[in-house]
Amino acid sequence: MGSAGVPNTIIWCGSDAGLQPPRSTQLHAESHHLAQQDQEQHHQEDMQQQQQQQQQQQDQAPAEEQDSKAVNSEDGVANQDTSAGSSQDQDGDQAQDSAKKRCDKCGKKLGLTGGFPCRCGGTYCAVHRYSDRHECNFDYREMGANEIRRDNPVVVASKLRKL
């Protein structure tokens, strides 16, 4: 009655061996073996689920990095319009500084807050977060004028200079 791979063991305990049927010993051995197989299958299934979860997490991490790189590349395109030469240098420095989380002006560690991002693409400490403190190359005046032109087409360009 033994299945393949299951040892058929009969334990003989002297003269009482004839009173107890050896089948009970065989069934006990088979049930113990089946229980071990079930445990191994559950363990393998758990390992497979853990591997799948790890793969999903790894797949999500590169997707998030690509999204952030796409956003950074769009910012890089805007910076190239304002200053073509310095934007390439800033992109290289920004990639290094963002990993270190330091102020782009003074190099101070930014800590848990992560600093203050600027529209010029840099990240600055509390002292240098304002555009006049870190020699920002982003033209806020031109941006404001463009927003007014877009929102209020009735406003004439000569009136915008007075702002």
Automatic annotation (TrEMBL):
PROSITE patterns, sorted: ZF_AN1
SUPFAM superfamilies: AN1-like Zinc finger
Bias (Basic and acidic residues) ranges: 29-46
Keywords: Metal-binding, Zinc, Zinc-finger
Any one GO MF annotation of this record: zinc ion binding
Low complexity compositional bias, start-end: 47-63, 83-97
Statement: the UniProt record of this protein carries the keyword Metal-binding: yes
InterPro entries (alphabetical): AN1-like_Znf, AN1_A20_ZnFinger, Znf_AN1
Keyword Zinc-finger: yes
Domain AN1-type, first and last residues per copy: 97-144
Protein name, UniProt field: AN1-type domain-containing protein
Protein species of origin: Drosophila yakuba (Fruit fly)
Source organism phylogeny: Eukaryota, Metazoa, Ecdysozoa, Arthropoda, Hexapoda
